[in-house]
Amino acid sequence: MAENRLHKYLRKEALPTSFCPGCGCGTVLNLFTRAVDELKLDVKRLVCVTGIGCSSWIPSPHFLCDTLHTVHGRALAAATGVKLYNPDLTVVVIAGDGDILAIGGNHLIHAARRNLPITTILVNNGIYAMTGGQVAPTTPKGVRTTTTPHGNPEAPMDAAKLVAACGAKFVARWTTYHIIPLKSAIKNALKTDGFSFVEVVSQCPVGYGKLVGMADAAQQLHYYKENSLRIDSLAEAQKHPDKITVGNFVTL
Fold first, then answer.
1. Does domain 43-251 correspond to CATH entry 3.40.50.970?
2. Range in 31-40, 224-233, 237-246 the model is least confident about
3. Does pLDDT of 18 surpass 60?
4. 216 with 37: CB under 8 angstroms?
5. Displacement of CA 53 from its chain's centroid (Å)
6. Domain residues of the chain, as ranges?
7. Is 249 exposed, middle or buried (0-12, 13-18, 19+ CB in 10 A)?
8. Does the reported pTM lie above 0.90?
9. Fewest Cβ atoms nearer than 10 Å: which of 49, 111, 148, 217?
10. Could you say which DSSP state residue 10 is in?
11. Any residues with CB less than 8 A from the CB of 151 and at least 6 apart, and which?
12. Tens of pLDDT along 82-108?
C-alpha cells in the first residue's frame, strides 16, 4: 500500500530509473519522495532545480513536479531566481558534488550567505561519474582517477563545513547507509525557513567504486557502516579526519 501511495509522485514513463545498478541516486529519490509524502507537501507548489550529472536525474525526469534542468553548475542561481519570482514555492536543488562544489561553488557560497529558503541536497559520490571518472572536489586524497593517475594530490572539500561557515540555517551530512536519519534530515531541511543543506555521501560502484576496489554497491555501503562516526558538531568532525563524520551539524 505504501509503495502504491508513493507512485503518485513519480513519472511512470521514466520508470524504471536509468541509474546504474547499485547507484545511490535511487536511494535519494526514494527518501526524498517519502519526505515529501510524510510532510504532505503540495507538489503543485514544489519546484525541483538540477544541474548536469547523474544525481541531477533524481527529480528530472523521475519526480512528478515542475522541474528546471539547468546548465552545469548553475542550479542554485536558477533556484534563486525561482524563489525570488514566487516566494510561496518550495524550491529544492538536487545535484552532485562536481556540479555544486566545482563549477557551481561560488553560487553555493552566496546562496548560503543570502539564506533564501532553498533546500539543497548534494549527492556526493566523490567523482565525476557521468563523464569518465575524473577527479572531483570531493575525491579523497590519494585516490587514482582518470585525471589523477598518480593519485589525487589535494585534500577533498568539506561541503558541510563550507555551507555552515556561510550561515546556512540547517546543515547535515549522512550516507546512503543511514536511510532513517537521512530521510529525517531531508524533512528537517524542507521545513527550514532559510537555506538548508543536506550532503549525501553516496555509492557509485561504476564510476568511483571500481577505482578503489569496491565495484559492488554492498561493499561501499559496508564501508559507510564501518567508517562513519555520528557527531553533533563540525568542530568535533575536525578531530576525526579518518572517518566519514555524519550528523545534523547546524539546526537553527
1. yes
2. 237-246
3. yes
4. no
5. 12
6. 43-251
7. buried
8. yes
9. 148
10. B
11. 141, 142, 143, 144
12. 999 999 999 999 999 999 999 999 999
Q: Which residue type is seen at 209?
A: G
Question: In the predicted model, what is the mean pLDDT of residues 112-131?
Answer: 95
- Per-residue DSSP letters for 53-107? SGGGGTTTTTBSSEEEE-STT-HHHHHHHHHHH-TTSEEEEEEEHIIIIIITHHH
For 8, 66, 98, 199, 217, the CA distances from 125, given in Å and listed in that order, are 28, 26, 9, 10, 12
DSSP strands (E only) in the chain: 46-50, 66-69, 90-96, 118-124, 170-175, 196-201, 228-230, 244-251
Kindly state the cell numbers that stand for 234.
563540525
The whole-angstrom separation of Cα 116 and Cα 22 is 34
> Which tens digits make up the pLDDT trace of 148-170?
999 999 999 999 999 999 999 99
Between CA 186 and CA 237 the distance in angstroms is 21
Task: Tell me: pLDDT of 1 over 50.
Answer: no
Closest to 126 measured CA to CA, from 145, 149, 107: 145
- Cβ contact 220:142 at 8 Å: no
Give CA torsion, residues 214, 220, 226, 227, to 10 deg: 90
Phi, psi of 194 (to 5 degrees): 150, -175
When pLDDT is cut at 50, 70 and 90, the band that residue 2 belongs to is: low
Half-sphere exposure of 10 (CA within 13 A, CB side): 21
Contact at 8 Å (CB) between 233 and 161?
no
Bridge partners, residue 196, by sequence:
119, 170
| Cβ(156)–Cβ(144) below 8 Å | no
Average pLDDT over residues 97-121: 95
